[in-house]
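[step 3/7] inverse_fold.run input=structure_tokens len=187
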């Protein structure tokens, strides 16, 4: 009986020591352990993560110069002018854009061939990202007309084409080098 009472007192002392404040322990390591245990987080911690999707502009690039060749009065001249690219970095949920083209009249200083004697054919269009690009073959004019329409887009996207410009030289055309300005834009 004496032995079981001694064991009961020993068990009670162990339980009391387990719940005693840290200051009751003389060991400096015990105090450090208690402070570290108090600083540890309880449960499973959550971390909120964020990031930003950047957005940019809607832009177009095109060649600065193109030579359409040469021909006699009553013939047609023409050539691809080089790549035209629309880049849409606006990162929109629903993206669309319209590329237009217009031209001044062709002039050699004293003689004029109207812009309406010229044709703009966008040809094949390659795209990146999500966008549907549809080209329209037009007769050029002094006012802008749609040549490529981008629809059903999302996020960043681009479209590139190499338009062919042809000019029907009037039978009454006077010899010389004719120049016009092709204006292309996107909105």
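[step 3/7] decode complete -> sequence:
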């Amino acid at each position: 009986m004496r032995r079981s009472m001694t064991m009961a007192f020993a068990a009670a002392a162990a339980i009391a020591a387990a719940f005693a404040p840290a200051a009751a322990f003389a060991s400096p390591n015990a105090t450090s352990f208690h402070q570290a245990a108090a600083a540890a987080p309880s449960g499973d911690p959550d971390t909120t993560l964020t990031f930003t999707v950047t957005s940019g502009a809607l832009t177009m690039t095109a060649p600065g110069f193109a030579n359409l060749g040469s021909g006699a009065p009553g013939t047609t001249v023409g050539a691809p002018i080089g790549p035209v690219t629309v880049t849409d970095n606006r990162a929109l949920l629903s993206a669309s854009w319209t590329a237009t083209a217009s031209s001044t009249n062709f002039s050699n200083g004293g003689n004029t061939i109207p812009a309406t004697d010229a044709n703009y054919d966008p040809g094949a269009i390659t795209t990146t990202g999500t966008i549907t690009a549809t080209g329209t073959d037009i007769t050029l004019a002094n006012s802008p007309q749609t040549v490529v329409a981008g629809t059903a887009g999302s996020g960043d996207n681009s479209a590139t084409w190499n338009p062919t410009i042809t000019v029907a030289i009037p039978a009454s055309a006077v010899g010389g080098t004719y120049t016009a300005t092709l204006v292309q834009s996107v909105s």
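[step 4/7] annotate
The CA atoms of residues 66 and 165 lie 9 Å apart.
The chain has two domains: 2-39, 58-186.
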